[in-house]
Design goal:
By secondary structure, the chain is an alpha+beta fold. It contains 14 helices and 19 strands. The strands form four sheets. It has a five-stranded mixed sheet with strand order 5-9-8-6-7, sandwiched between helices. It has a five-stranded antiparallel sheet with strand order 10-19-18-15-16.
Length: 572
């Protein structure tokens, strides 16, 4: 169905608009689409009337009435409009979902009643559109409110997320700080444990003082000065000390000398030192149970110390003070024991036809001195008793007990008696005198003009005898048990041929025993060393021979025990 209308004035334009609306209604175009169509057509026709001329409105439905089709609306200028004829046509298309009556839809008369009816229909469409617009406005308002509520929720959610993010960042920062502090504490504790092990490993207080700067510089201090109150003047001229160090020594409290407060726990602040005003100083006393040993003065590795580092340094100084005090006590006891030991060792007697040489070496490691001893003396019948022994234990107590055993043995020997009898009486003496103390010993007796050596041993390494022809044998006949054990025993004598030019070696276990190898390889080495000498060499220089025996045998020794060696050479 096609229909054309000419438009030259406002009335024509109104009729064209009404015809279009009625046709669109006849074809079932929805009211909203009809309103949009008529509004767009009215706007365009208004423009056409403004331009002037004659215009043609063409309405064309492209489908049968029983089918859904399209309604084409075209406004074109006529050829006789002059300048407006060159303007392109205006087109629009709407869908027609329902059937229509073309004849009824096309009936648009000039009758005012029909025109009014059409205008009323247009007003109804407009009212329907307005009603729909109201509904849409309510729906838009509802959705706008929903959107507002959603935005409020999103804003609240963002605020919660921000708060959670800040809390998480704070938690991460606190965790990192706690981890850093824990790592620092672990590092300080590890350093404190390792440094304490280094300081307590030595029993020489000079060595401990020397190790302190090596431990602290440069991580915890730039410089370290150890001021010991006694003994410094013996080694070097007195040096000036900071006033804070003197105050620390006087009060026993750590002092911090600088031009700014230190803020260190347990430390008093003092003015900067006059010796070096620009350098902060931390002066820590070396405490003991009686009085401070000295003062440790430190300068910081940077501008100042961390408070936790200062606490660690004070604790390290306390441990160093204990180590120095213990080392000094040890050195004092060792010196006393060694002095007592050497004072009690016998000057060897001079005997025609028999040369004696003895060596005593104190231990160089630990307080392992005072237990080894040797002796040589004559009996009333002219026999020469030579003895070497080892008292269990070390230090002053062992040295005193060694002295008592030596005195008791000499007293028993005045009454005569063989080596076995003397050891048996010595065993009973020690068992009753010191039930918890034991000893080992070897006694050898030389009689003038007697070619027989008589000897006895109690738990001691066996003597080694070198014959004039250079052969060496170990006198390993069954010995008695240790002296002083809770056992009633009788120690027997043993004899061995003694030719002129023979040499007998008595010794303690410190000469031959090694922890990793035992004692037997050491005895073999001693026998080889003794056999390497000639009879003439031993007779000419027995003292030098003793030194030449000790040197190779002690080359692999840690010297953690004292050593005794007694050589007895029978002249050829």
């Amino acid at each position: 169905m096609t229909r054309s209308l000419q438009i030259t004035d406002v009335v024509d334009a109104a009729r064209a608009r009404i015809a279009t609306a009625r046709l669109a209604a006849a074809y079932g175009v929805p009211a909203l689409d009809r309103t949009r169509l008529t509004t767009a057509l009215s706007a365009h026709l208004r423009q056409c009337l403004t331009k002037g001329g004659t215009w043609r409105l063409s309405l064309e439905a492209t489908a049968a009435p029983a089918e859904e089709g399209l309604l084409h609306v075209v406004v074109t200028p006529l050829q006789d409009t002059g300048a407006t004829a060159a303007q392109p046509p205006w087109r629009t298309t709407v869908r027609c979902p329902e059937t229509a009556d073309p004849a009824g839809a096309a009936a648009v008369a000039d009758d005012p009643a029909i025109l009014a009816e059409a205008l009323l229909g247009a007003d109804e469409d407009t009212a329907l559109v307005l009603e729909r617009l109201d509904e849409q406005e309510e729906l838009v308002a509802f959705h706008r409110e929903e959107l507002h509520q959603t935005n409020q929720g999103v804003l609240a959610l963002h605020a919660e997320l921000d708060a959670a993010g800040r809390a998480q960042r704070d938690a991460f920062a606190a965790e990192r700080k706690a981890r850093t502090e824990a790592e620092s504490a672990r590092r300080r504790l590890t350093f404190l444990a390792d440094a304490s092990a280094v300081l307590t490993a030595s029993l020489n207080h000079h060595e401990i003082v020397r190790r302190l700067p090596d431990l602290l510089v440069p991580e915890y201090a730039r410089s370290v000065d150890v001021w010991l109150f006694d003994g410094d003047g013996d080694r070097q001229p007195p040096a000036p000390h900071p006033a804070a160090a003197v105050l620390a020594a006087r009060t026993g409290r750590p002092q911090y000398a600088a031009d700014h407060p230190g803020g260190l726990p347990g430390v008093s602040d003092q003015p900067p030192s006059a010796l070096d005003p620009a350098r902060p100083l931390l002066c820590i006393p070396l405490p003991t149970r009686r009085a401070p040993l000295g003062v440790l003065t430190l300068s910081p590795p940077g501008k100042r110390w961390d408070p936790d580092d200062a606490v660690m340094l004070i604790e390290l100084t306390r441990r160093a003070s204990i180590a120095i005090d213990n080392a000094r006590r040890f050195e004092h006891n060792r010196d006393i024991a060694e002095t007592l030991q050497r004072a009690l060792l016998t000057d060897l007697p001079t005997t025609p036809g028999l040369s004696l040489a003895a060596r005593y070496l104190p231990a160089t490691y630990g307080l392992n001195i005072g237990g080894d001893w040797y002796d040589a003396f004559r009996q009333p019948d002219g026999s020469l008793i030579t003895v070497i022994g080892d008292v269990t234990g070390h230090g002053l107590h062992a040295a005193v007990m060694m002295s008592q055993l030596r005195t008791a043995l000499r007293a028993y020997a005045v009454d005569g008696g063989s080596p076995g009898q003397l050891l048996t009486r010595l065993h009973m003496f020690l068992h009753h005198l010191q039930p918890d103390l034991y000893a080992t010993a070897v006694i050898a007796r030389f009689r003038p003009g007697d070619p027989t050596l008589t000897w006895a041993a109690a738990g001691h390494p066996p003597p080694v005898l070198r014959t004039p022809d250079g052969r060496v044998r170990t006198l390993d006949a069954k010995p008695g048990a240790m002296l002083g054990i809770p056992l009633r025993q009788v120690i027997h004598d043993h004899t061995a041929p003694l030719e002129p030019g023979s040499t007998l070696a008595l010794y303690t276990d410190g000469l031959v025993e090694r922890r990793a190898l035992g004692i037997d390889p050491g005895i073999e080495r001693l026998a080889q060393a003794l056999g390497s000498f000639g009879s003439a060499e031993l007779e000419a220089d027995l003292d030098g021979s003793a030194d030449r025996i000790l040197t190779p045998l002690l080359s692999d020794s840690e010297r953690d025990d004292d050593v005794c060696l007694l050589l007895c050479h029978l002249a050829a």
